[in-house]
Design brief:
Number of strands: 7
Radius of gyration: 20 Å
Number of domains: 2
Strand content: 15-25%
Strand order of the largest sheet: 2-1-4-3
Number of helices: 4
Order of helices and strands: EEHEEHEHEEH
Amino acid sequence: MPTYCYTNKASGETIKKTWSIAVMLKMEGDRDGISQGGDFYYRDYTAEHARTPVGGCASWPMKSDAAGVHPDQCQEFSQNSAKMGVYTEFDKKTGQAIFTSRSHRAKYLKAMGFHDRNGGYGD
């Protein structure tokens, strides 16, 4: 079943609905969007056909589970990375490392002694 994206232009919020074509046509009618909770969401064709989702690979900043830490260790590892010359932030909720670019990721992984099997290809 296809997934349809709808964006509220006022708030910028995007929602996804997985519907059959028949259900989508019924819900949209002739408006090219849907009403949800009293707000109108326009059909977002760009979001539907984008190859890379927001926050996914090839999006910077990129979050990494593999280079992450326990959420309780975020501040400690941020300070340690700064001492190594590659300041890196960590998501306080998930502990994921937050890389701002390919070069930032490469420098951090090298400083920590990690090996990136993909070498940055496929981001």
